[in-house]
Design a protein that fits this description.
Strand content: 15-25%
Number of domains: 2
Radius of gyration: 23 Å
Strand order of the largest sheet: 3-4-5-6-7-8-9
Number of helices: 10
Low-confidence stretches: none
Largest sheet: 7 strands, parallel
Order of helices and strands: EHEEHHEHEHEHEHEHEEEEEEEEEEHHE
Helix content: 25-40%
Shape: elongated
């Protein structure tokens, strides 16, 4: 990524004030539980060096990342934060965790034994979280393993016991209540240790799911936490330049594979971005299958043909002749186009849209 003016035509604007407001909204919703912030994957693609301090200024004090490297980056800008590493403990990572004062989330007996040995070798009781699997079947101890650990002791003092909801974004899914019941049994084996169940969607399930600490992620960044419900404030705006406006005749095809054939005299705006910028190939259009929209001159215009690596075509036939010209900007996210709408065109989720945002955009931060 470069910060040189004009070096890249596309502009990604990140609204740090909206990010902070979203955290405050969630913190008020889950009180008296504490509200942490998940900033893994470079703060969902938005830049952890800017997002982290904005969330800290809003009041967040506990943060979750996925990797040790992410913890080290976050520690550079947040010297006082509590940082948990969700990816667990890899062999040899103890020293790195200690150096950046980060806490591993331990999800297996081997990890727990390794951390206990690491603590013993240094004569220190270093904090760590215990991850319990309550239905995701991904990481974590079984409920029975967690109960046994709570009874016999871990060789260090756990600072958090947590699990992860698998289906909380689907209202009424039976697994959600089952996970809460399982987690309650596991957490009871660790009296006095803070418990954490709720992700973004869990924050909207009510006090029974909040426990001591909630861990919102996608909701902070303007994505919908629960299917069919409105998200909080949008945080990103993406604008890309028009580099050419060209004419097409009925029967002409557009883009690779001749995937879409024009049915009328058409004007096509060519945008300077594509899947190398994180605009997924699946967002394109073909005969009988509409793609995503772009907003040009204040109006929605449909994509036409496949998205290619560096270029994307948009049908601007319905705009006045003088409404769009080379150098104008098309809005891809913003002005009513939210990350979840865009994601739906590609059969994916807002998480993938945000974390795929490319390095070639000029990033502009406001409100921080």
């Amino acid at each position: 990524m470069t910060d040189l003016p004009g070096a890249t035509g596309a502009v990604l604007t990140i609204d740090l004030a909206a990010l902070a407001d979203n955290w405050r909204t969630l913190a008020a919703r889950v009180a008296p539980a504490q509200c942490a912030a998940v900033v893994k994957a470079n703060a969902y693609g938005l830049g952890v060096e800017r997002a982290g301090p904005a969330l800290w200024a809003a009041g967040a004090r506990t943060f979750f990342v996925a990797l040790v490297e992410e913890a080290a980056r976050l520690r550079e800008v947040l010297p006082e934060a509590v940082i948990y590493v969700l990816g667990g403990l890899l062999p040899g990572n103890g020293e790195v965790l200690l150096a950046c004062d980060a806490r591993p989330v331990l999800g297996s007996r081997a990890e727990i034994e390794d951390w206990a040995d690491f603590c013993a070798a240094r004569g220190a009781d270093l904090p760590a979280a215990i991850h319990v699997d309550t239905g995701m079947n991904r990481l974590g101890l079984t409920v029975e393993e967690a109960q046994a650990l709570g009874q016999r002791g871990a060789g260090f003092t756990p600072s958090l016991v947590m699990t992860h909801l698998a289906c909380a974004d689907t209202p009424g899914h039976p697994l959600t209540a089952l996970q809460r019941e399982r987690f309650s049994r596991a957490a009871a084996a660790f009296p006095g240790v803070a418990a954490s169940l709720a992700n973004s969607a869990g924050c909207f399930l009510g006090p029974d799911y909040h426990f001591d600490l909630t861990r919102p992620g996608i909701a902070l960044y303007g994505g919908a936490a629960v299917a069919g419900t409105a998200p909080l404030k949008p945080v990103v705006r993406l604008e890309v330049p028009v580099i050419q406006v060209r004419h097409g005749l009925p029967g002409d095809t557009v883009g690779y594979g001749a995937a879409q054939r024009l049915g009328r005299d058409s004007r096509i705006a060519i945008l300077s971005f594509g899947y190398a910028d994180g605009f997924l190939r699946a967002f394109g259009a073909s005969d009988g299958l509409p793609g995503a929209d772009a907003i040009i001159a204040g109006r929605r215009c449909p994509l036409v043909g496949r998205v290619s690596m560096d270029l994307t075509a948009v049908d601007v036939t319905d705009l006045p002749e003088d409404a769009v010209a080379r150098g104008d900007m098309a809005v891809i996210l913003g002005e009513g186009i939210l990350v979840d709408e865009l994601a739906a065109h590609g059969g994916t989720i807002g998480y993938e849209v945000l974390t795929s945002l490319g390095r070639r955009y000029r990033r502009v931060y406001k409100g921080g």
